Amino acid sequence: MEQVTIRDIARKCKVGVSTVSRAMNNHPDINPETKEMILKVIAESNYVPNNSARNLKRSNAKAIAILVKGMDNMFFNNMISVIEEVVRKKKYSCIIERVEEKANEVDSAIEIVKEKRLRGIIFLGGNFTHPHEKMAQIPVPYVISTIGAVSDGGKPCASVSVDDYRESYKMVDYLCGLGHRRIAIITACEDDISIGRLRLNAYRQALLDHGIPYDPDLVFHMTKDDTYSFATGYKVTKEILEKKTEFSALYATADTLAIGACRALKEAGLTVPDDISVAGFDGIDAGEYYIPSITTIRQPVEQLAAETAKMLFSLISGKEEPCSKVYDGELVVRESTKSRIAQQ
Q1: Model-level pTM?
Q2: Which CATH architecture has domain 1-49?
């Protein structure tokens, strides 16, 4: 019989791992009803905390974990495949853990390190705004991948990414160069201060550099519960169309959003790119084979993934100090965008 884990309890209770941990440790910062419900589920599930794992010497462990926040984002699929291959060649095992959108990824990391014999952690996705004191609680080396350069209270964390601001600017500059002046954007929720904020700020600056006024009515945010999925792109685009906002191009800050957007536009009787140009970001395989194929910023997946794994193993071996490595993306022009200059 498979052993019940703290994440199993969290899923049953529909709460984060950190909330389960607070209930188990009698932490005052938890709703009494929630605590009672969690403890009841723990008792019914015969869950036993794996305290022995905490006392094992991690120097003998041969496992790392990949914590993924945003499993619906197809961009991560290829990343994970490449990382797994590197890990396998190092004769390590690889544990893949999904982190719920509302969960705290650092709390999840701390708990999985307690339960598993881990040597290191890779974070894919998420919103890293955690204070130094929080990050310092992670007892093993870690690399933050695809999220951009971040710091731990002024001290740089190990990270691998593209420059999201620069690459987003590149895309909006391209759309402006095609003659588009009414460019709608689908981006992360309003309080996102990582990738979503960077890509939105670049959008704003590119418009300004082309003499195009920034119009907040053209900015459409995902909600906190939304993921970077086809469904979200479809849903948000339908909301855009219902508002009857005038636009000639739609920049979706992920290819999955762009593909969902194309479906909503088609259902509304609009043709891509003749009526509306659509652009994405990431360079996932599905965007190349969709009809019309999606103009995008292609991230160098293989390089990002390989460097992420390489950096983690260097940290584990003590050969490297935490640093940030930034790669260039590539503007890939396909069928979903069209010039409006001749039409004006």
Answers
A1: 0.81
A2: Orthogonal Bundle (1.10)
